[in-house]
C-alpha cells in the first residue's frame, strides 16, 4: 500500500483541529465520499481483501432463506413481508436465499426485497446478480425502507460501524485518538482529559481492567432502530458477525488487505478497517427498547441446528468427487472451531417482536454473558 489521498486529508484535519477520535478516523476510512473504502470498490472475493460466508458456499444463503421461511410461518404467514439485507455484498446471499424460498410460493409471492447498500460498485453487482428478481429496491439506510412486517438479515454489517475506543490511564478513562508523531506518521494517543464518570457506564468486567487497557463501544442507535422496527411492525432481525459474547476490555481495531492483517493507520481508505462486535451490548440495547432477544450462539452451532450437515450431504451426493471435496471444505470452514474456521469466531443473534418466542437455531435460554 502506498500513501493514500485520504491520508493527506486526515493529516490536514488533525493539524487544523487536533487529534482525531478513533471513531471519526474509522468513519472517514470507510465512508469518505470520495476516498472511502466502502464507496469506491468491490472488496470481496479472491481478488479483493476478504471473503464472507455467502461467497464461501451457497449453503449459507440457502439456509438463511429457509430460516426466513421458518420465521415467516411463526409470524402467522403474513401476505406481505419485507425481506431486508443490510450490507448485501455482491447479492450472493440474497440470491441463494431466494432460490431456496421459491419452493414456498405463498411466501415467495409475499416478498418485497430491500437492499441497504451505499457502495455504487456493489449496487451494480447486486443488480446484476438479482436481475430476475421482482419487487426489489435499493436504499442508503434502514430509515429509507418503508414500514411493514420485516425480516432483516445483517451478515458482517455491525463490524464496520465506527467504534469508539477508551484507554484507561492513572486518572480515569480517556478517549483514544489518532495523532501525528514527530516523523509525520499517524499514531495512537489519548485525549488529555478523562471522560467524566465514564466508569459508571462500564460493564463489571471492564471496571477491573488494568492501566493501559482499551475498551471499545459502539453507540446503540443502529441496533435500537432495528429492534424498535420489529418490535412495532412485527418480524425479526438476524445478526451474524465476528465478535465476543461478553462485554470486556480489548483492542480489536484492525485492517485487512488481500486477506491479511495490516496496520490500520497506514494507507487509510485502501484497507478494510473493522472492530469486533460486542454481542452482549447488542442484546442489552435491544431488550432496553422492549424487543425479544434470542441467543447469541456460535455460527457453527446455528448452522448445524438449521441443517447445514444435511444440506451438505444432499449436495455431495449429486456432485462429482472434486465438487464434493469443495463442499466438504466449505462446510468445515463455515462451522469448524479450529484455526481458519468461522464456527466459533462468528456469533449469531436474533431479535424479534416480543410474541415471537422462538427462532430456528437460536434458544432463548442461551444469553450473552452466560457463555464465553
TrEMBL record:
Q: Which domain of life is it from?
A: Bacteria
Report the InterPro entries cross-referenced here: NDUFAF7 (IPR003788), NDUFAF7_sf (IPR038375), SAM-dependent_MTases_sf (IPR029063)
What are the GO BP annotations of this UniProt entry? methylation
Record Gene3D superfamilies: 3.40.50.12710
Q: Which GO terms describe its molecular function?
A: methyltransferase activity
- Signal sequence coordinates: none
Query: One Pfam family, short name please?
Result: Methyltransf_28
Going by the UniProt record, its keywords in alphabetical order are: Methyltransferase, Transferase
What is the protein name stated in its UniProt record?
SAM-dependent methyltransferase
Annotated source species:
Bradyrhizobium diversitatis
Task: Tell me the organism's taxonomic lineage.
Answer: Bacteria, Pseudomonadati, Pseudomonadota, Alphaproteobacteria, Hyphomicrobiales
